[in-house]
Structures are given as C-alpha cells and as structure tokens.
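Support request from a user on the community tier.

User writes: "When I paste my structure tokens into the form, the page sometimes reloads and wipes my input. The last time it worked, I copied everything first. Here is what I submitted, just in case something in the input itself triggers the reload:"
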C-alpha cells in the first residue's frame, strides 16, 4: 500500500494528458509453484503494461511500483531496438536472484536476472528481447547478497560505485564500450542516500545525491538515445509524508524528460 501511495503522490504532479495508468491487482496473487511470491499478479501487471507500451509512439517513463515493473518496460524497449540497448541499472540492490537463491521469494529481487534471460522461464526474457550481462551496467549497488556477488564476479558484470559516478566519465566510458547507441535507465530510488529521500522501504546509506543522479542522467541523454526509463520504489510512510520527497523526485523526472 505504501507503493500505491507513492505512485499516487507522484501522479498528482504529472500532466494528465501525458500519463497512462496501469491497474495493479488488489489481490495478493499466487506463486503457482514458481518459487516467486505473488507470481500471478506479477504476470498480470506485465501483460497490462505491455498493452499500454504498445500504444506508445515515443519512449516511455515507467513510474511507481517496485523494480519488478521494469521487466515489461525493458522488454518493450529492447524489442524496438534489438541488440542495441544498454541497461544502466541504478539501484542499491542488483536484483540478480533466481527463485533458488532468493531469501524472500519476492520478484523484485529477481528482475534483473530475468531481464538477462535467466531465472524462471515464465519471466526470463527471450533471446530477442533479453539484455545480456555485457550490456548491463550496475550503478550504486551496495547491498549485495553473497549469491549476487558471486554472479557479478563470475559473469564479469560492470559495477560502478557511488564514488565512481560522482563524475559521469566512467559510466559514459562503460556505455561506449558496449558499442550500443541506445540506453534504458532504471532508477531504483534506493540508489539515493537516505538524506536525499526518506520515502523508501529500505534505507541504504552512502548513496548518491540528487544532483549527482540528475547530472548522470543528463550526461547519458546528451550522448546516447534514451529508449525507456523507470523510477521505482517510492513508498512513503503516509500520503502526507510523500510531500517532503516530491521536489527531489520531480527533479529526477525532469532530468529524464526536459
């Protein structure tokens, strides 16, 4: 419900003509023997997002929910530009689990592995839409489980710390090295330091400042073509509490859209 409040608070400051709402099931959903909690609801949301995205003539910014909503959005962008999309994953968590390694069974912790085409077959993207690990760049990941750390090393994922993106040069170099011209920008708001944003379910210290995040986004947009983006994870303690965080969230939205 906190995610619902967060999404509604942001929507209230967006132009109605430019937004499309994706209805999320109110029921909890069922795992359906996948090892993924609420799997049936995850699939319903994915299908409803896909319908909205197919009707979009320009690139789309997905706002609200947890990081699981990036699955459909990345899939859509990748299908539009096959084999030429770099995924910049700005988040405190790499979200690289499978149902076998996840300590919680929550899909949010598995979504990036699905985007890479691995994990449970019902959510793993196919060969035409997956983003391989060599075109995924982690930024600001600092709450990493052992299974995820092992995977990052084994697959050679590029991971930049918060210190390494104080200037955008290293990130730009990493994107250039992939040879791709299009970029999808996923922003889990927990990439920010708790001093910049309080409305999060999991506050992870030593994150980015809002100016660093917005300048990073601006640098990516200046050199590459953005084909999709997500801003996820806003979960204020109450609708009233959302008010304090909205100016910073709107600055981030502005860096993507102006």
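"...and here is what came back when it finally went through:"
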């Amino acid at each position: 419900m906190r995610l619902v409040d967060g999404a509604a608070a942001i929507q209230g400051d967006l132009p109605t003509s430019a937004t499309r709402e994706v209805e999320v099931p109110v029921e909890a959903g069922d795992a359906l023997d996948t090892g993924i909690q609420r799997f049936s609801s995850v699939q319903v949301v994915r299908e409803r997002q896909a319908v909205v995205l197919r009707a979009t003539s320009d690139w789309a910014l997905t706002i609200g929910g947890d990081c699981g909503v990036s699955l459909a959005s990345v899939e859509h962008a990748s299908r539009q530009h096959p084999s030429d999309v770099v995924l910049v994953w700005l988040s405190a968590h790499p979200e690289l689990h499978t149902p076998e390694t996840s300590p919680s069974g929550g899909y949010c912790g598995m979504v990036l592995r699905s985007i890479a085409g691995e994990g449970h077959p019902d959510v793993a993207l196919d060969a035409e839409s997956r983003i391989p690990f060599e075109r995924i760049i982690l930024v600001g990941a600092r709450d990493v489980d052992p299974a995820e750390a092992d995977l990052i090393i084994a697959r050679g994922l590029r991971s930049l710390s918060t210190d390494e993106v104080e200037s955008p040069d290293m990130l730009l170099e990493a994107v250039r090295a992939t040879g791709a011209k299009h970029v999808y920008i996923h922003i889990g708001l927990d990439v920010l330091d708790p001093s910049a944003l309080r409305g999060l379910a999991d506050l992870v210290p030593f994150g980015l400042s809002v100016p660093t995040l917005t300048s990073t986004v601006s640098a990516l947009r200046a050199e590459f073509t953005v084909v999709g983006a997500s801003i996820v994870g806003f979960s204020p303690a109450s609708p009233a509490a959302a008010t304090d965080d909205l100016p910073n969230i709107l600055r981030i939205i502005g860096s993507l859209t102006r």
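Agent notes: The reload is a front-end session timeout and is unrelated to the input. The CA atoms of residues 10 and 250 lie 8 Å apart. Helices lie at 2-11, 39-54, 70-80, 111-115, 146-155, 169-178, 210-223, 242-257. Escalated to web team.
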